[in-house]
Amino acid sequence: MDYGYQERIVSLLKENKITNNELAEAIGKGKATIGRYLTKGPTRTYPSIEDLALIADYFNVQAHWLCFGVGDKYTEANEITKAASTSAATVSYYSRTEVTKLLETGEAESKGTIPVPPEYKDCFGVLYPVGGTVSYKWDCVALVNRNQEWINDDIVLARLPGNPHPDFFTLVKVGTTIHVWYGDDTTKNAIHQVNDDEIEILGVVRWGTWEKRI
C-alpha cells in the first residue's frame, strides 16, 4: 500500500464536502480513528485494507485507486488488468538477501515472476517489507531500475556501511550530506546521515505491485 491514500481520502472529503465525523459514522469508526488515519504525526495509525475498501465504497470510487493509486477513481480493476495484460512484460522478483548475488553473478533464486507494464521490463523486482495491518495479507514487490539516477525523496535499494544486505531507504541530499530514512516513512527523524561514498545505491524504485495472499 502506498501512503498516498491519505491525500486521496482528504481530496475526497473536500470534493464531497464530508467531515471526518460523517466519514467515521458511515464506516462504523470513531472520529478520532479517522483523524489518526490522516495525520502524519506520531499518533498516526494505519487503516486496514478492509477499512479502506469501506471508505472507497462510501465515496463510490475504486478501492485499488484509493489503496494503491492504481488506475483512476472509477476504472474497474478488471479493465486495468485487461489493458495491462495486452502489453505487459514479465520480470522476476527476489528477496532482499538474494539481490547481492543477483547483481554480482546475474543469477539468484527467484521468488516468482510478475506481469508489469512494458516500460518496466528492464527492472527487477524485490520483495518490499509492508507493515501494520496489511503485512499478513499482502505481498509487495518493488520494481528497481539500476540505471535510474536518484533524486531527492526517491525510494532506493541501497547498502549502508556495515550492512551486507541491501534495504529500502528514502534519500534527501542537502549540500554534501545524504539524509537517510528507512523505507518510505519520513515522518520520523532520519536514521543516518552519510556522504556519497558511504552508501551503495543499487537502484531506484520506480513502481510497485501488491498481491493478496491466499
From TrEMBL:
<dbReference type="InterPro" id="IPR036286">
    <property type="entry name" value="LexA/Signal_pep-like_sf"/>
</dbReference>
<dbReference type="InterPro" id="IPR001387">
    <property type="entry name" value="Cro/C1-type_HTH"/>
</dbReference>
<dbReference type="Pfam" id="PF01381">
    <property type="entry name" value="HTH_3"/>
</dbReference>
<protein>
    <recommendedName>
        <fullName>HTH cro/C1-type domain-containing protein</fullName>
    </recommendedName>
</protein>
<feature type="domain" description="HTH cro/C1-type">
    <location>
        <begin position="9"/>
        <end position="66"/>
    </location>
</feature>
<dbReference type="InterPro" id="IPR010982">
    <property type="entry name" value="Lambda_DNA-bd_dom_sf"/>
</dbReference>
